[in-house]
Amino acid sequence: MPLEVKPVEYVHISEIKEDDIFGTIVAENTVAVNHDHFVTFRLDLDIGKDSFVRTKLMTKRTPRSVSTPRKSHWTTKRKIAKTEAEARVKLGLSPEELMVVNPNRRTKHGNEVGYCLLPGPFSGPLLTEDVTHRFGQRLLTTTYGSLPITSRRFGLAVCTLIVAKATTRWQYGPKVMWHTIGFHHVPSQEDFPTMPTLSCSFELRPTNFFEQNPVLKSKSVKITSAKNCSPKND
Q: Which residues are the signal sequence here (predicted)?
């Protein structure tokens, strides 16, 4: 993509026609253009022959035959992705938990060992489909080592790969998750010439990874009485 930087003729917002506003005047003859920030993280969980599990949170109506004041409750429906196509996720459309588990490793209570992804913030693309298809999926899960690409072409390369492997069955086997977070940026004068720091994050949380809360293994605090440290007056 070509990049061009040159001074503009504007020094005041009143000089710009409404249809030609694509940014903010941050200094004389300087316009900061509206733009997006997208960052994609490669998450290699390395837990063996793992499975990608989507657990949807669903509302269920209480049968009339049940004597209870509650008319509804919520439950979960678990589904293991069998193809890469089933592991594409547009987050935020419905409440669900996203996990990668190892079906061959279980806790003493029978729960599968794995990790749960708590997604980071994301602003959906505002451009036309020829561009937004590159970032339409906030979360992709692929087979291990299947993306020998550079970050510059990440979006297009991923889309090409997913279409090609959409029917490939890969229910069990090493996998890599690709999580994209981002936001829209409408510049302000405070952003020039040095933009303030804006932080965003996501969490990869161990789920049924330990037999109990690790805090319970910490040593208890030993309470002792302190010596009298009152000052002396000579």
A: none
